[in-house]
TrEMBL record, chain A:
One of its GO terms (biological process) is phosphate ion transmembrane transport. One of its GO terms (cellular component) is plasma membrane. Residues 1-22 have a biased composition (Low complexity). It is found in: Cell membrane. Part of the binding-protein-dependent transport system for phosphate; probably responsible for the translocation of the substrate across the membrane. The chain crosses the membrane at residues 47-68, 74-95, 107-131, 164-190, 210-229, 235-257, 278-300, 346-372. GO terms for molecular function: phosphate transmembrane transporter activity. This is Phosphate transport system permease protein PstA. InterPro entries: MetI-like, MetI-like_sf, Phosphate_PstA, Phosphate_transprt_permease. Belongs to the binding-protein-dependent transport system permease family. CysTW subfamily. Keywords: Cell membrane, Membrane, Phosphate transport, Transmembrane, Transmembrane helix, Transport.
UniProtKB/TrEMBL annotation, chain B:
Its main location: membrane. The chain crosses the membrane at residues 38-60, 88-117, 129-152, 184-205, 267-285, 305-326. GO terms for cellular component: plasma membrane. Residues 92-328 form the ABC transmembrane type-1 domain. GO terms for biological process: phosphate ion transport. It is a multi-pass membrane protein. It comes from the Bacteria. Part of the binding-protein-dependent transport system for phosphate; probably responsible for the translocation of the substrate across the membrane. CDD domains: TM_PBP2 (cd06261). This is Phosphate transport system permease protein. The gene is pstC_1. It is found in: Cell membrane. One of its GO terms (molecular function) is phosphate transmembrane transporter activity.
Length: 427, 343
């Protein structure tokens, strides 16, 4: 633009003999609102091609399966319809566009369908379990009784799974008591103390995240039960779940701690804080929500595992609240045991138990998502207000000191929740 | 200018003074800090010890059985530890076949979903989809087992029959006792096969593979993406020329991580298969076995020596998954080079 505007001046001030290039003076462009060109999105013909191909794919499959060829089966129908749809869609797009565009459109459809297939499977798994669980779940005794008085042939109005619910809660509590302090400490270790040994620990932990859960159970069986001579109990099952959960929690916590902004820890160290004060007052509070998510997701995995519990907890049908003595049963183990019976009532109980287990996992998962929705250091409004109040108190304290060497400007207004209280006010 | 020709007494000379050595920063650690370091190190050592204990104690308990059989532990198919005739040839074959089916089914699914989430999906859908993939990873394995046993199996029979009719000439897909074009053959030869178990395990490992791949894809450099678009690439062209080459390590590593999970899966496989103790290479045919379901099947009625044999099988599984996982995490870590540096 600048070159065009300057051109007439150059012509008038400097007369030359050679004819200079003269740009025609341009009137200012008429004031029309700019309309951004659409670069993405679907045009009408795209939508029509998609729907048309879909309709013709369905029709061809209907024709093939109903009239022409002696084909049958729902799976074959869907696959045929899909393949025909893809081919016709490619042809329709090819009428208007060139090769790369056709490939792009077809692959986009393929990627959509891959994701759709996966999520259909998820919905089927959950939906089928809930559907089959509808027989056992409406009976209130399912949640308030144990299986002590209910045999395989008894109707669903007798017996329940409260012993399994209690057992699951006890086992996961034991596992959490060990996992949370040890796991978070180990994650902090991996982050804070660098060196060859900590890298080695990290490698081992990463490889152990996919430790077969039955091997975890086998290890506790070999040590706790065979070598130490203890009996099968809730405690042993808790240990087995711990072995399985620990690498998962450490790995997730390690990833979260790595996301803590370096300038926060540097600020703490610049203020003279020692290492442990930095970790305790800056790193851990900043990563709190992420750490909670890591622990909760690990818990969800630990609750659902059957095989460590299978080897170490034994199986009982009555309520047992003592993790030290006697066998104990967990929800997944109860599902597993019920489903091995051929009786329809037991299988209905298995599905009901599976729904309870899944609901538990879903609740944990939702809590994890709600807590972990924010990145490290992002605060809720309440937290921000609390931090602002704390820093206001600090500022007042400093103002009271009135040390001549340290005269801090004290501004009431800036202690509002809008500014970042952590970095702005704490000084 | 070297330090030799710097004139003494002229500190702004630019050169280094002879006595100008960088001061050694003395970060004197207080007592609290030292205790803190010791505690953290102790936590790290404790975790390492627990993990090492898994291998050590398995090995300890397994020596008795391994001594009794020696090398034939790897080549015997039968499992009769009380007459000292046992080995993991059959169960290991079954485990590998189930894992192979699982990876073959899950790889396209995971790759497609990961690409969809990172490249194609509308931005507002993305968080929901990621949550759903994570949820899928959190669904207990016993639930997948129930679904596979009561729902999937009867629907897969059609596919199994079609595959064995048309591709029965491939040894892996052959089914004994059926002939092509004989639709009235009993459907029960297709149930409880490695194929059904593999599909169920595939659903369990897809979310893991998918989240590893998606994470690597989303780190593909924006500059190169925009460069591809600027050169006129379509979205698929950009994916092929930037995202996929950049994420190759993530694809391989994620697949192998899934493979590690698939090898160790117990309960879903146990519920679906009907155990046999011969080497069964026909994946569509009923009857197969896996190391972990062998352990779950026999731990209850095992004698002391039988338990030792089971520990040996567990050790073999442990070593196998550990090798796969080590390779996988090395590949993933290499593909993420630079992503670990501090922001």
């Amino acid at each position: 633009m600048t070159a065009i505007q300057e051109a007439p001046e150059a012509v008038t001030t400097e007369p030359t003999t050679v004819p200079a290039t003269v740009l025609p003076s341009r009137e200012p462009a008429p004031e029309t609102p700019e309309q951004p060109r659409r670069v993405g999105g679907n045009t009408r013909s795209d939508v029509l091609a998609l729907w048309g191909a879909g309709a013709s794919g369905l029709s061809v499959a209907l024709l093939l399966f109903g009239r022409i060829a002696p084909l049958s089966g729902a799976l074959g129908f869907v696959v045929t319809a899909y393949l025909v749809f893809l081919v016709i869609y490619a042809v329709l797009v090819g009428l208007e566009h060139d090769g790369p565009a056709v490939r792009d459109r077809v692959m986009t459809v393929v990627l959509w369908s891959a994701a759709a297939l996966l999520f259909t499977a998820l919905v089927l798994v959950i939906g089928f379990t809930v559907w089959r669980g509808r027989e056992a779940l409406p009976h209130p005794n399912f949640f308030t009784q144990d299986m002590q008085n209910a045999g395989p042939l008894d109707p669903l109005t007798l017996g329940g799974i409260d012993h399994a619910i209690l057992g699951t809660l006890i086992m996961i509590a034991i596992a959490l008591v060990i996992t949370v302090p040890l796991g978070v400490a180990c994650a902090v270790y991996l982050n804070q103390i660098r060196g060859r040994f900590s890298r080695f620990v990290r490698t081992i932990v990463e490889a152990m995240t996919a430790l077969p859960s039955i091997v975890a159970g086998l290890m506790i069986y070999a040590t706790w039960i065979l070598i130490l001579g203890q009996q099968k109990s809730g405690l042993a099952a808790g240990f087995a779940i711990t072995v399985m959960m620990l690498p998962i929690v450490i790995r997730a916590a390690d990833v979260v701690l790595r996301l803590v902004p370096g300038n926060l820890t540097e600020a703490a160290e610049a203020l003279g804080a020692s290492r442990w004060r930095t970790v305790w007052h800056v790193v851990l509070p900043t990563a709190r929500s992420g750490l909670a998510t890591a622990v909760i997701l690990g818990t969800a995995r630990g609750i659902g595992e059957t095989s460590p519990v299978l080897l170490t907890a034994g199986y009982n049908t009555g309520l047992n609240a003592d993790p030290l003595h006697g066998p104990m049963v967990s929800l997944p183990l109860a599902v597993f045991t019920f489903v091995k019976s051929p009786e329809p009532a037991m299988i209905a109980r298995a599905f009901g138990t599976a729904v309870v287990l899944m609901a538990l996992v879903l609740v944990l998962f939702t809590i994890a998502r709600v807590i972990g929705g924010r990145g490290p250091g992002q605060q809720t409004k309440r937290k921000a207000r609390r931090a602002a109040r704390a820093s206001q108190r600090d500022a007042q304290r400093f103002a009271k000191l009135r040390s001549p060497a340290l005269s801090l400007p004290f501004r009431e207004a800036s202690a509002s929740a809008g500014t970042d209280p952590r970095t702005g006010e704490n000084l | 200018m070297t330090s030799a020709d710097a004139v003494p007494g002229r500190p702004w000379g630019g050169g280094r003074q002879p006595d100008d050595v960088p001061r050694r920063l003395n970060a004197a650690r207080g007592l609290g800090d030292r205790i803190f370091r010791y505690q953290l190190t102790a936590a790290g050592v404790a975790v390492l010890a627990i993990m090492a204990a898994v291998g050590v104690f398995l090995l300890l308990r397994a020596t008795q059985a391994l001594k009794a059989t020696g090398f034939s532990f790897l080549t015997t198919a039968a499992w009769q530890p009380d007459v000292h005739d046992f080995g993991i040839a059959a169960v290991l074959t079954g485990t590998l076949l189930i894992a192979m089916v699982a990876v073959l089914v899950s790889l396209p699914l995971a790759l497609g979903t990961a690409l969809f989430i990172s490249e194609v999906a509308p931005r507002r859908l993305r968080r929901t989809l990621i949550s759903m993939v994570d949820l899928m990873a959190a669904v207990p394995s016993v639930v997948y087992g129930l679904w596979g046993l009561f729902f999937l199996q009867q629907h897969v029979i059609t596919l199994s029959r079609w595959l064995s009719d048309w591709f029965g000439w491939i040894p892996l897909l052959k089914v004994d006792g059926t002939e092509p074009g004989q639709p009235l053959a009993s459907a029960s030869v297709y149930t409880a096969s490695a194929f059904v178990a593999g599909i169920v395990v595939a659903l369990m490992v897809t979310p893991i593979q998918c989240s590893v791949m998606r994470e690597v894809f989303s780190q593909a450099p924006a500059g190169e993406r925009e460069g591809a678009y600027a050169l006129g690439a379509t979205r698929w062209g950009m994916i092929r020329s930037v995202t996929l080459p950049y994420g190759r390590g993530g694809i391989i590593g994620g697949t192998m991580l899934g493979l590690g999970r698939a090898l160790g899966e117990t309960i879903a496989v146990y519920l679906i298969i009907s155990p046999v103790f011969v080497i069964q290479p026909h994946i569509l045919q009923t009857g197969t076995n896996s190391v972990s379901s062998l352990i779950a099947l026999h731990y209850g009625d095992a004698s002391e020596f039988g338990m030792s044999a089971l520990m040996a099988a567990g050790l073999a599984l442990f070593v196998l998954t550990l090798a796969v996982n080590f390779t996988a995490s090395t590949i993933v870590a290499r593909s993420r080079s630079g992503a670990q540096s501090e922001a």
